[in-house]
Amino acid sequence: MGQVVQAKGGAVAVKVDETPSQYLTFSLGGEMFAVGILNVKEIIEYGHLTEIPMMPSFIRGVINLRGIIVPIVDLRIKFNLGKVEYTPFTVVIILNVAGRVIGAVVDSVSDVISLTPAQIRQAPDFSGTFDTKYIQGLAAIDTRMLIVTDIERLMTSADMALIDSAAE
Asked: Would the pTM of this model clear 0.70, i.e. be above it?
């Protein structure tokens, strides 16, 4: 986040890194989210999936993407964001997370934006009622709040069951 530097007169100051990072923004259940662009491989049309029996409801199935079997996670279901509807705007963001390729179904993608670390505020503590461990922070964009998601932490978590923790 920052580095300690020696200021004039011997005072110590913390220099904040203001280098912007790029994020892909998308909508889920009426809310705006963002993931780091470096995790995004591509965006594809939502299409036919092969359903796998006995999987959690948020894992919709798998697709064959140029010879790679890709699990598809519906983030609306995972985040419990209301009724799931698939529209012509519904897309799959293909992500590269911890050396694995994983797809995330979202309502629509919006834009690629740049945010500095100072623009991303820490998510408020909701005590035990809401789990914020997958939220990197919140950023105000115009009149809306953007939920910056820690996609690495989310997709590699034990409750997602996508990446074998023994292999890490």
From this structure: yes
